[in-house]
């Protein structure tokens, strides 16, 4: 039985659908701080409200469902965290500690994502190595580095089978993201379809790693099914599918919507966050240790996103 926190979030939504297909709907317990009536997951299977900052609530729910795996996705993303640093610490670190403790007590396998946000201005910017300096300058980045270290600690101190990846920006059609810096690369598709125009809050020339959500979901499943004896790293594998800047994704969209135009209204805070992150990261360790691979590059993702959003009625 798998407990997923933050299941109604951008990753959780598609992850739970895929895991239910693979492992059976009754074996994946979707939880979220609040239920969202009408959300595909709330209407289609086991759903429980869970606030990950409630240690007893996490323990009792995991015990009630006799879970053996915890996929901890509940967190505040970079821009939200930068606007509410104390709340971000409490939710991101408090939630992680509570779920790690339950994983220790109930002997659960554990996954939580880190991010390219775990790197900072002093990390090598291009082809950022798996093991390198990590001095992020955002609260989100501090949470992610602390989270990587905490998950390593629970592995070597308590033997908890913790695993994780450093996700790039994730692009999805099923559930809009909330409060990220890379989300311009999602918003651009919605606006291209609705008004054939997008105003980017990230400046031209700002490269960031990205990945289409189906590849990200497969990443989590592949890593969780990997042979633990092959893992030299445990948490925070660099994973990425592509790196692009706003003009490149706009040009790709224009191949399908020729009249699409984009202009800029740069948001200083999210631009500063983006500037502190790598341009591109090196996923070699993930490829070597558990066969990480992706199917979608920018052209293929653009076709898929436009098709799926049109089908959704955007
Ligand atoms: C964010 N989408 O923008 C998330 C992610 C690497 C980016 O961590 O905060």
TrEMBL record:
The record ties this protein, via Gene3D superfamilies, to: NAD(P)-binding Rossmann-like Domain (3.40.50.720)
What SUPFAM superfamilies does this protein's entry cite? NAD(P)-binding Rossmann-fold domains
Pfam families for this protein = Epimerase
Which positions carry the signal peptide feature in this UniProt record?
none
All copies of the NAD-dependent epimerase/dehydratase domain together span 2-238
**Coiled coil stretches, renumbered:** none
Tell me the PANTHER family matching this sequence: L-THREONINE 3-DEHYDROGENASE, L-THREONINE 3-DEHYDROGENASE, MITOCHONDRIAL
Family of this protein: Belongs to the NAD(P)-dependent epimerase/dehydratase family.
Can you say what this protein is called?
A: Nucleoside-diphosphate-sugar epimerase
